[in-house]
Amino acid sequence: MSVIRSAVTGVGSYLPEQIVTNDDLSKIVDTSDEWIIERTGIRQRHKARDDQPTSDLATEAARRALVDAGRDPSEVDLIVVATTTPDMTFPATASIVQRKLGAPTCIAFDVQAVCSGFVYALSVADGFVARGHAKCALVIGAEEMTRLMDWTDRTTCVLFGDGAGAFVVEPREGQGTTADQGVLGFALRSDGTKTDLLYVDGGPSSTGTVGHLRMAGNQVFRHAVVNIAEAITAACDKAGVSVPEVDWFVPHQANQRIIKGVGDRLGLDEEKVISTVSMHANTSAASIPLAMDAAIQDGRIKRGDLILLEAMGGGLTWGACAFRF
Ligand SMILES: CC(C)(COP(=O)(O)OP(=O)(O)OC[C@H]1O[C@@H](n2cnc3c(N)ncnc32)[C@H](O)[C@@H]1OP(=O)(O)O)[C@@H](O)C(=O)NCCC(=O)NCCS
After folding, report:
1. Does residue 255's CB lie within 6 angstroms of at least one atom of ligand 1?
2. What is the per-residue pLDDT for 1?
3. At 158, is the pLDDT very low, low, confident or very high (cuts 50, 70, 90)?
4. Is 208 left (phi over 0), alpha (psi -120 to 50) or beta?
5. Which of 221, 226, 252, 258 to mutate to test the pocket of ligand 1 (most atoms within 8 A of CB)?
6. Which of 167, 197, 209, 318 is 20 to 30 A from 9 via CA?
7. Does the pTM of the predicted model rise above 0.85?
């Protein structure tokens, strides 16, 4: 039976120039390169310039993804930006990206699911594309997490960084089988009883300030491994594929120990798990497309491969998505 699938036809990413090493951070808080590497796998993170808002990072990643897809900004008809660090409270960062790209009048809005944002945004775009409401969609994860750091809190400020990544998503006709190119299945979750484990202590309708990121790291860690493993299994079930069939796991890049914990729980082959967290730390909604792009550039991920994306973040939210590239 012929079906319309949402295919990922282009991938791009962007990291701001300035690199902040673990040694740099050890000069402002009581930490060390050894501690950070051992507990998280992180070696460095990137930091945006003061005059470089999230939309700049998003726009550059989107341009690169459009070039990769062979598409022009004039063809874009949907922009979904996953971000928890918008340029402004409103308008949506997606509308600013639309202007900066020079895209025509189209659908543009943001999705806020923190570190799970990219998986959520991809599923939203899938709804538009597979139902015929969009023909050239941009799904962007873009974050400047360094803006939310309390630079006196060593338990959080070493973990995060800035960056952006983007997918171009277009309709492709498939046969309704798991061999089809495009999104095959996803699982999305939220547990609002756990908002106090990972949050920012500010906002327009509470404090009137931007606020700083706060986290009960130990507890988030425990939930992450269990929740992500469950979502991976559920997304594979929805897609009609088995976990061992997946060619590449592209996890949210929060922490090497979480990535390994999930892998161990599901018995994943380590060789199939893409990890770039050492290079850019936790870039929240940007981390999945950043990792995907890196693995395409170095020749690991190829067209036709079965990919599994997964993430967990504030909310708590979590989710996974299986697609054939
Ligand atoms: C944050 C995290 C790395 C901390 O590692 P941990 O092994 O759980 O460490 P703990 O929180 O138990 O702290 C152990 C000690 O290290 C200290 N410590 C915390 N951060 C430190 C740092 N950057 N440098 C040095 N010591 C640090 C703590 O103060 C504590 O010291 P104490 O025993 O004297 O009180 C870990 O909990 C984690 O990875 N959590 C998940 C975080 C995450 O990725 N969240 C995002 C999900 S989207």
Report:
1. yes
2. 83
3. very high
4. left
5. 221
6. 318
7. yes
